[in-house]
Amino acid sequence: MASQFGISKAEILEMSSVLQSRVVTDAVAQVEGMLQQMDSSTLNIAVTGESGAGKSAFINAFRGVADDGPEAADTGVTETTQEPVAYSHPSARNVTLWDLPGIKTSSFQPRTYLKDVDLLKYDFFIIVTSDRFQECHSALAKSIIQAHKKFYFIRNKVDRDLEANAKRRKKGGLLDSEVLSLLRTDCEKNLRTCQVDEPRVFLISCFHPQCYDFAALQMTLLEEVEGHKRHALLLSLPNLSTPCVFHYLCTVHEVQIIYVHYWALGHISAVHANNQCK
């Protein structure tokens, strides 16, 4: 005879027996621990670059916050950051982006910069530029490499470059794809001179995050961030819908489903015990 859950008495007895075994108890504890670690993992992203390159605009775009919103990082053409400033992600409080002081300033000292901004605090660095590759970028890249940290190079404001090219195109300018290719190649070539074997270069516009390489940057971070920090990052990308993100979501959901499954077994066992007492 089936119970109110549509499960036979024999099946209830079998599941109750399994539930009481040490293996299942240990498995449930392991899954619970895994979920707790996921929820408590933090991710700290350092965002640096020269004054006016769009560091703050990048932080806002990454967090899905309008530049004039209450939680927005201050933006402007002049350097507005003198000390590292933390900005939590509105939908994933475990993810924090840090707006670091600009590197193309009179106070920038390549040898002490990373120590001054508390290097060990950050999981990786985002270097933002909106112009040609310069010596300050090279010095910063070398310092990060020597510290055994990862960085990703962002060439911002590419929409501005394409607009300028469109005006020249009337006189025989390049195709947009050619302009983007030249920008990427120049950044990669200069980074290789800094002993970066596989430069991570992304062409973006913070005003148009749906265009260019913004999604590619997010996907690369998902692929390269390790352990439970990946879960924290995933929660900060709710609007990104790609097969790869779906894969990561499935991984997280599988753990949750396992937990729910064991919870259901426990619930069924409790129902069975109550029925036995009647």
TrEMBL record:
Residues 41-224 form the IRG-type G domain. GO terms for molecular function: GTP binding; GTPase activity. InterPro entries: G_IRG_dom (IPR030385), Immunity-related_GTPase-like (IPR007743), IRG (IPR051515), P-loop_NTPase (IPR027417). This is IRG-type G domain-containing protein. Keywords: GTP-binding, Hydrolase, Nucleotide-binding. GO terms for cellular component: membrane. It comes from Electrophorus electricus (Electric eel). It comes from the Eukaryota. Pfam families: IIGP. Gene3D superfamilies: P-loop containing nucleotide triphosphate hydrolases. Belongs to the TRAFAC class dynamin-like GTPase superfamily. IRG family.
